[in-house]
Amino acid sequence: MSKNILKHLAIIMDGNGRWAKERGFIRTKGHEKGAEVIRDITRYCAEHPTIETVTLYAFSTENWKRPKYEVEFLMKLLDSWLKKELPTYHEFGARFETVGNIEGFSPKLQKTIASIKEQTAHHTNVTQILALNYGSREEIAKAATRLANRHEAITEESLGNELNTPYTDIDLMVRTSGEQRLSNFLLWQLSYSEFFFTPTLWPDFSSQELDDIIDQYTNRERRFGGV
Ligand code: IPE
Ligand code: IPE
Ligand code: MG
Question: pLDDT tens digits, residue range 26-41?
Answer without folding.
Answer: 999 999 999 999 999 9
